[in-house]
Amino acid sequence: MAPLTLSVDVKSSSVSAPDVSNRVMQIPQLRTSKGFASVNTQDEKPFDFFRTLFGKEQLFRLRVSTFSLICFRFDDAEGFIAGGTAGVVVETALYPIDTIKTRLQAARGGGKIVLKGLYSGLAGNIAGVLPASALFVGVYEPTKQKLLKTFPDHLSAVAHLTAGAIGGLAASLIRVPTEVIKQRMQTGQFTSAPSAVRLIASKEGFRGLYAGYRSFLLRDLPFDAIQFCIYEQLCLGYKRAARRELNDPENALIGAFAGALTGAVTTPLDVIKTRLMVQGSAKQYQGIVDCVQTIVREEGASALLKGIGPRVLWIGIGGSIFFGVLESTKRTLAQRRPKTIKESKEE
């Protein structure tokens, strides 16, 4: 349960400072932070993404104590911790499947897929996945909560879609260079992440680290939005039907379904993104449209579904692990707060 806070209404600019002080003493209002995936449209301010992201909302609240303010910030940090943990676990467990998928998609004309070095680039990739996953969930959670409070109940899916896209956009700043280096190592172009960064930067410039950025957004923004929307909506529906919170196996099962379905639907976008990222300085494709036209002309339309099997398997299992670990980590972190608050009161 989140810490109780003492809120002060400062909307009226016509009231003098002493009057405000009197109001604080006479009519204190106790509020609790809303629970995960809660919906409330009463007496809430319009959504402001930048205020949510940078934590400026504290300027409009007076905390009961300094300790309460620290707990508030810890509550916000839970998303970063849970997201980073879930991302690293998934990447470590399923990296070989991702490597096979990448090599299938990068091969032109059905070339031979070499299975050697399935863990190539894992260490460097984790160095990027950790902050990227933490940033995604750290942005997604508060954005989702604000949108759920702003939108009516029947538009909760829109809130989840929007929050997923915003989280993906923020995380793309870290995800794209990580993905470029990872996929080029998976296809045997480099042997280590540091050498990959140096050579890409020297031959292609800083923009080389963001090769295929637009195609990445074309794939990941719909992917993040759809996957998290499906997951959240299924969880909300299940909770209403069962009239209880979900357990870890149920979260994992719903996460697997959401991941597999979204992975299948976005496979063509993933193929385009992979081709643009691994082409390097050769510039075989002159953009997204040219990439699609060239693939269909030279390899047939079915080439846009290359790697769909490993991708669905990888994201299905990954969704199960990610959401299972995410919810478990969030619950573990949340359980630590009531104990700490109780101890502070006793002091």
TrEMBL record:
Solcar repeats lie at residues 74-146, 155-237, 250-332. Belongs to the mitochondrial carrier (TC 2.A.29) family. Keywords: Chloroplast, Membrane, Plastid, Repeat, S-adenosyl-L-methionine, Transit peptide, Transmembrane, Transmembrane helix, Transport. PROSITE patterns: SOLCAR. It is a multi-pass membrane protein. It comes from the Eukaryota. Signal peptide: none annotated. The keyword Ligase does not apply. The chain crosses the membrane at residues 118-137, 157-176. One of its GO terms (biological process) is chloroplast organization. It is found in: Plastid, Chloroplast membrane. InterPro entries: MCP, MCP_dom_sf, MCP_transmembrane. Its main location: plastid. One of its GO terms (molecular function) is S-adenosyl-L-methionine transmembrane transporter activity. GO terms for cellular component: chloroplast membrane. This is S-adenosylmethionine transporter. SUPFAM superfamilies: Mitochondrial carrier.
